Amino acid sequence: MTAVLSRQDIHRLLQQEPPLIEGYINLEEQEQPNGFDLTVRQVASLQTPGRITTSDRQRLVSDLSQLMFDGQGFINLMPGAYMITYNEIVHLPNTIMALGRPRSSLLRCGVNVGTAVWDAGYSGRSQSLMVVHNPQGFRLQQNARVVQLIFLWLTGETEGYRGAYQAENI
Q1: Which residue numbers in the chain have pLDDT < 70?
Q2: Distance CA 132, CA 6 (A)
Q3: Beta carbons of 140 and 103 less than 8 angstroms apart
Q4: Which fold has domain 3-48+63-153?
Q5: Could you tell me if 154 and 87 are in contact, meaning their C-beta atoms sit under 8 angstroms apart?
Q6: Rounded Cα gap, residues 60 and 98, in angstroms
Q7: Confidence (pLDDT) at 1
Q8: What ranges do the domains of the chain cover?
């Protein structure tokens, strides 16, 4: 049976080797009753078109240009799409997968974060798509919590992720 991990389960898995999550900013703030908040390390703009084909060998992701935070650690984002990189490195065992959802405060500002599935066995510092829908733009502080990861026990152990993004950004 699949089940969502509780705060206690997550906390226990943070103590294992490798830990479920490393590189977090503030454990007390980031641990949630039903998940763990991820924080922004970097923001980049997309510079080129990407390409998805029937073969992964022909896949081409967009080139990125890193944006800089100001002296107070903020960045002003105009409406549009951005790639964010998280501070945290996630290490999923072959019995746990994760789903990411934007924090509600982000949505209330007219900003969304699109995420993919974190497959069991994945290890890396993930990236997600942040879209600023607010016509007035959005002001984001580095290390702000933007996404909550929800962890799910699988019905059994799986082979584990073996894709191109394994160990990304580490």
Answers
A1: 1
A2: 31
A3: no
A4: Deoxyuridine 5'-Triphosphate Nucleotidohydrolase; Chain A (2.70.40)
A5: no
A6: 25
A7: 67
A8: 3-48+63-153
